[in-house]
User: Which sequence fits this backbone?
């Protein structure tokens, strides 16, 4: 059973996830599972935009890229040396509580290069703070069906026929 429910800021499902390189989509799913189970904690983000909001980050790499990063570190090289542009992707998220449930809300997913993931996250955090809109939550549980709202019954006034009111139809 997951330790956390998962939620997504607007734009993550619509833009960030579909724009991930194909070789990162499967590792992304595994990272989400690790986050939801509590196995992955991530690292705190230290910008003024993120610090007060409790944002965290998780690196996202394919297993092949992870092995290359490790080899570079072992050889004393820059870890990103010779790996191309798509090695540095990040998942930016927040932990919190919504309606009494522990949640992890994914704020952004994107390349680290050019700080794109962080800029996108900052934009969404500001937009969300201004609109006071709660990010959507994805639940593994089926929603409880609601009974349709019943309007109070009021007596309906009887309409007079056209002949009585002088109107013609």
Assistant:
């Amino acid at each position: 059973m997951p330790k956390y429910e998962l939620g997504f800021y607007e734009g993550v499902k619509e833009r960030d996830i579909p724009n991930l390189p194909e070789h990162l989509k499967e590792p992304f799913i595994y990272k989400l599972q690790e986050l939801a189970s509590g196995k992955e904690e991530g690292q705190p983000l230290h910008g003024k935009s993120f610090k007060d909001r409790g944002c965290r980050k998780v690196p996202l790499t394919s297993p092949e890229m992870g092995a290359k990063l490790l080899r570079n570190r072992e050889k004393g090289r820059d870890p990103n040396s010779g790996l191309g542009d798509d090695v540095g992707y990040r998942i930016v998220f927040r932990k919190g509580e919504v309606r009494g449930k522990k949640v992890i809300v994914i704020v952004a997913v994107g390349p680290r290069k050019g700080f794109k993931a962080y800029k996108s996250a900052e934009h969404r955090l500001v937009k969300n703070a201004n609109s006071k809109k709660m990010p959507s939550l994805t639940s593994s549980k089926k929603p409880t069906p609601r009974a349709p709202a019943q309007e109070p019954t009021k007596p309906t006034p009887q309409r007079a026929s056209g002949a009585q009111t002088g109107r013609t139809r």
The beta strands are 5-8, 43-44, 55-60, 89-98, 101-111, 136-138. Residues 137-147 have pLDDT under 50 and may be disordered. The chain has one domain: 5-138.
